[in-house]
Amino acid sequence: MTLNDIEEEIILLKAVWELIDSMVNFEMLDLYGHDPDSSILFETMTHQRFFNIILVDFLSRTDKRAFIKQTSYLSALKKISESPNFDVNNSVASLSGVTHEFSDWLEQEIEVHKIWLPSINTETSLRLSRMTFLKMCGNISKHNFLRLISVAEELKEILSRSGVSVELDEALLALDEFYQWFHTDILNYHASTIAEFLNNIRWGIYEYLQPEFQRSIVWESRDPPKYRYTYPKGVTSRLAEAYYWDIMNDIRSPPYVRRFQVTKWLKLRY
Questions:
Q1: How many CA atoms lie less than 13 Å away from 220 in the CB half-sphere?
Q2: For residues 254 and 205, is the Cβ–Cβ distance under 8 A?
Q3: Is there a smaller number of Cβ atoms within 10 Å at the N or the C end of the chain?
Q4: Global confidence as pTM
Q5: How far apart are CA 198 and CA 185, in angstroms?
Q6: Helix count (H) and strand count (E) of the chain?
Q7: How does 98-136 read in b/e, with b if 16+ C-beta sit within 10 Å?
């Protein structure tokens, strides 16, 4: 099956919406405080672990067999922002802005000092991008150590850049301690900021597609309410039609997590 640009955009927007819904919701986390000093807390450590696992999916590439050109979700959102099929009066502006801001934030390198790794009897500083440690921790959250050799190789390379030479088996042993630092502590510190970015992307999609929703919906009766959608030109495949219907239903109402601004005190480190 070959999909055109508008069909690929619909499918990607639906996928992004679904991923964010599974991460930023009130079963997963609680929202505290008032803007501009809001923050989130996970319900349990298990919820934080699940959040990290789904976040890895969001930061990864689509399956090459998924009927669309293989891409990362953030790259797809950037492409949509640059060549949107549903933009009306710059309705894509919010989505474009937050997508580029989040991507820049993820790619920024951080340096964490005085990391103690007792399994290799080493204290060191590690320098790596936020994207890197989030994906490494997500994979550690997801897999048993026997499926983490590639992550251990990545840690071995990161340690080497800091002047610490270890064997692969030693890097594998140090993964638990790396995880304690970067998942339990640093991800927990950044969670509110990440949730803010993700929630703003969801709001951006909602605002971007509102003109299309208004164009598309046709009310056939009001009691009981009955409606249908008018598919845009170019949407002909059953797959794209199904996901178009789903995403239109998703944006019938605003996202259930309000827009929020995270306190600056959770944005000053790492």
A1: 5
A2: no
A3: N
A4: 0.96
A5: 20
A6: 9, 6
A7: bbeebbebbeeebebeebebeeeebebebebebbbbbbb
